[in-house]
Design goal:
Elements: E1 2-4, H1 8-13, E2 21-25, H2 35-45, E3 55-59, H3 68-78, E4 82-85, H4 91-103, E5 109-114, H5 117-121, H6 123-132, E6 137-142, H7 144-151, H8 163-176, E7 179-182, H9 191-203, E8 208-209, H10 217-224, H11 228-242, E9 251-254, E10 257-260, H12 261-279
Parallel strand pairs: 1-2, 2-3, 3-4, 4-5, 5-6, 6-7, 7-8
Antiparallel strand pairs: 9-10
Length: about 280
């Protein structure tokens, strides 16, 4: 959930939101002449203990901007769970970011926005540089609005024209073992449209979806939670492989369907995900 760092009222409400991550935004959501005030408000917000059920992240301004160093100093003072950096174009940007983190003695995780044509073209190199950096890359966040703006590609039609790039980002994230979050749905007055895109995100194997309004939290949680049918099937698979007659079996017959141990691993992951959801 993106929260403008300048919006004191919104900041005061985040502890009661049922989202997994709060991203306090110092970049797009804050006007140039309000950056200093937004940083000051974040310092105050982080002085109060945050909920155990939420991760707090600060999105800073881009490396090339005059606000970057002051933003990083604020991040170092606040000590969020991660820092999210926009407009990453190359591995050199990642190395410059790591150097800045070292200067400011920042131990938190590194999140990167993937939102430029250059980033899409050099994505695997960027991710590898992030995994070699300290702090280490933990998550990619897709900036669909900026990708559409820079490339001119039409973002509608259920994102069919963006799909090759989105799936490329997902593939790289899965290959390199980092989390990946889908971009935002802009029209929060259209919950039906959001629901369609959120369920698309799940099918594309995104780990979550970034949000711009509290009304999007419940439908996002519903979309990314396993369905009752999926949970029942997963429990049946785990139970079947646990039977003594199937000990060591690579493939079993479950209700007329061939089920392999790879399906067992998938079922176990799904049940572990559900357990984590219930724990939160």
């Amino acid at each position: 959930m993106y929260v403008p760092a300048i919006n004191q009222r919104a900041i005061a409400k985040v502890r009661g939101l049922a989202c997994d991550v709060v991203i306090f935004d110092l970049e797009d959501a804050v006007a140039p002449d309000a950056k200093a005030a937004a940083r000051a408000q974040l310092v105050q917000a982080f002085e109060v203990a945050r909920p155990d059920s939420q991760r707090w992240v600060i999105r800073v301004n881009a490396i090339a901007t005059p606000d970057f160093e002051e933003d990083m100093a604020t991040v170092a003072h606040c000590r969020p769970d991660a820092v999210l950096v926009p407009k990453i174009d190359s591995p050199d940007d990642v190395r410059a970011l790591a150097a800045a983190a070292l200067r400011h003695r920042m131990p938190m995780a590194l999140w990167l926005m993937i939102e430029t044509a250059a980033a899409l073209a050099m994505l695997d190199d960027i991710v590898q540089a992030g995994l070699a950096a300290h702090p280490r890359l933990d998550c990619l966040v897709v900036g669909t609005n900026d990708i559409a703006k820079e490339t001119g590609v039409f973002p509608g039609d259920e994102r069919v024209w963006l799909m090759p790039w989105l799936m490329s980002i997902v593939l790289t994230a899965k290959r390199r073992g980092v989390a990946v979050l889908d971009g935002v749905w802009n029209d929060f007055s259209d919950p039906a449209g959001f629901d369609v895109e959120a369920r698309q995100s799940v099918k594309m194997a995104f780990d979550g979806k970034t949000l711009i309004h509290p009304s999007q939290i419940a439908p996002a949680n519903a979309a990314f939670s396993p369905s009752a049918a999926a949970l029942a099937e997963a429990r049946a698979i785990v139970g079947a492989f646990a039977q003594p007659e199937h000990a060591g079996a690579g493939v079993i017959n479950l209700d007329g369907k061939m089920v392999e141990r790879l399906h067992l691993a998938q079922a176990e992951r799904l049940l572990a995900r559900q357990a984590a959801i219930e724990a939160r």
